[in-house]
Amino acid sequence: MSVPAFAALATAVVAGWLALYRLPFNDPARRRRTALWLAGRTGLRPEPAFAVFGTVVYLVLGTLALAALLAATPLTLSGLFGVPAPGMLLALLLAVFGTSSANILCVSLLYRADPRVDVPGEIARIQWIASILALPRHYRWIVPAVAALFEEVLFRGAVLLGLGALGSGLFLALAISTCLFAAGQVALVSTRVQAYVLGTSSLTLGVVGGLLTAATGSVLPALVLHMSFAGFYTNLSASASPGARPATGRLSL
Amino acid sequence: MWSHTRSLELLVLVATVAPAELVRVATAFGPAARPGADRGRAARLGLIGAPAAYLAVTALAVAVAADGGFAPAALTGWRAGAPWLVAAAVVGAALVGAEFAVGAVPRLLDGTGRLRLAVHRGGGPAGGGYAAAILVTAVAEELLYRGLWIGVLHERLRLPVGVAVAAAAVAYAVGHLFFGGLAVVQKTLSGVVFGLLLVVSGSLAVPLVAHLAQNAAVFALAVRQGRGERAAGGGVSGGREAAG
């Protein structure tokens, strides 16, 4: 397959993944009905039952997207998980610091433009993060960690390394994989501030994680980077001011 | 597929923009970022945290470059004669005046207020802690933005030297967003001058001495300003200049 054809396929697959995940439950009434049905079947409260359901839908659709993309490249799933040289630990640590500082720089610019903006509150109101906050505290890290695993294998593994295996240059592959990843994150938010924060942070994560993946040929360092980042955001949302917490009983996906 | 070294070179550049922002992990997202929060606490945190962040990120970046076999000559060349070092000290001290001039331009243009000069001090007294903070930060910044950035951009990525100097100056300046948008413009000017000193002299010691001289002058002004504030019982405003 040629590089442009694979880029088009990746765009279509990612768009399809997110549309199938997002659109059926865009209607709050349908979300509520589904949550109550799930609660009746599982014995869980509606909010965590729907959070688990949403995560499973996201991951099942993501698995299908991953299979479709890997089939179009000479890569294998296990081949994406090579163990990097020990020296790459330094690069990973630098990447963690660099991603955090670039991300905070973007938020600082936002505060400079509008000092009244409530970033923690906005993040806590993003639907998938609000659904994580409905889970018991000790299980909250699992959802972002598993989502990070899927997103890294798909965007840095199948898309970035797939483009490389098909003969793409580094900059083009970085641009395509990062833009698809960021567009996917922005598609899951509902306000401008959320779009700015998630958009800039996923651009940073995409570029830095992409460079780590390109340097090692493995998604493992980028996966660790993404998990640390996702964990930071989840805890941040959980510690947001009381006014920023999602209203009790509100259902979110 | 792709060059391992090239990927690491780009990573070192992307991951070292504005390390001081790491300090804001504790402040930018939480209640301390909101209007009415204790700005003094954030400033005190910055006095310790910013140099620590610069040191940690610089050490990591240099270690990655050394481990990856792409430490540039700009980072490892330190030999410079006494005339160069004296000239660097003069240029560094003169840069304080140039930064004040840049800082005064907006006030002169809008004609508001009486022009008074002040330095950013991080909210605390200009004591030994402040001196150590601006010393450590200057060393880390020269290693990072002049040695590593200009070296990687020019020697490794083959960009024209002017582009490398300008890009490194902007990356260095963005790290001063802490002090406001004007400080970024002021520090871009200083960054270009430090970069040119490196390119013309071929020694990292020259921009380092200039940077240390600039910070020494700022420290002396901060001490003087602190005495003046205590005597007057108030703050000052006008064309500000930041160390770092």
Automatic annotation (TrEMBL), chain A:
<dbReference type="Pfam" id="PF02517">
    <property type="entry name" value="Rce1-like"/>
</dbReference>
<feature type="domain" description="CAAX prenyl protease 2/Lysostaphin resistance protein A-like">
    <location>
        <begin position="142"/>
        <end position="229"/>
    </location>
</feature>
<feature type="transmembrane region" description="Helical">
    <location>
        <begin position="6"/>
        <end position="23"/>
    </location>
</feature>
<keyword id="KW-1133">Transmembrane helix</keyword>
<dbReference type="InterPro" id="IPR003675">
    <property type="entry name" value="Rce1/LyrA-like_dom"/>
</dbReference>
<feature type="transmembrane region" description="Helical">
    <location>
        <begin position="89"/>
        <end position="111"/>
    </location>
</feature>
<keyword id="KW-0812">Transmembrane</keyword>
<protein>
    <recommendedName>
        <fullName>CAAX prenyl protease 2/Lysostaphin resistance protein A-like domain-containing protein</fullName>
    </recommendedName>
</protein>
<keyword id="KW-0472">Membrane</keyword>
<feature type="transmembrane region" description="Helical">
    <location>
        <begin position="159"/>
        <end position="183"/>
    </location>
</feature>
<feature type="transmembrane region" description="Helical">
    <location>
        <begin position="50"/>
        <end position="77"/>
    </location>
</feature>
From TrEMBL, chain B:
<keyword id="KW-1133">Transmembrane helix</keyword>
<dbReference type="GO" id="GO:0008233">
    <property type="term" value="F:peptidase activity"/>
</dbReference>
<feature type="transmembrane region" description="Helical">
    <location>
        <begin position="52"/>
        <end position="75"/>
    </location>
</feature>
<keyword id="KW-0812">Transmembrane</keyword>
<protein>
    <submittedName>
        <fullName>Membrane protease YdiL (CAAX protease family)</fullName>
    </submittedName>
</protein>
<feature type="transmembrane region" description="Helical">
    <location>
        <begin position="82"/>
        <end position="105"/>
    </location>
</feature>
<keyword id="KW-0378">Hydrolase</keyword>
<feature type="domain" description="CAAX prenyl protease 2/Lysostaphin resistance protein A-like">
    <location>
        <begin position="131"/>
        <end position="216"/>
    </location>
</feature>
<keyword id="KW-0645">Protease</keyword>
<feature type="transmembrane region" description="Helical">
    <location>
        <begin position="157"/>
        <end position="179"/>
    </location>
</feature>
<dbReference type="InterPro" id="IPR003675">
    <property type="entry name" value="Rce1/LyrA-like_dom"/>
</dbReference>
<dbReference type="Pfam" id="PF02517">
    <property type="entry name" value="Rce1-like"/>
</dbReference>
<dbReference type="GO" id="GO:0006508">
    <property type="term" value="P:proteolysis"/>
</dbReference>
<feature type="transmembrane region" description="Helical">
    <location>
        <begin position="125"/>
        <end position="145"/>
    </location>
</feature>
<feature type="transmembrane region" description="Helical">
    <location>
        <begin position="191"/>
        <end position="210"/>
    </location>
</feature>
<keyword id="KW-0472">Membrane</keyword>
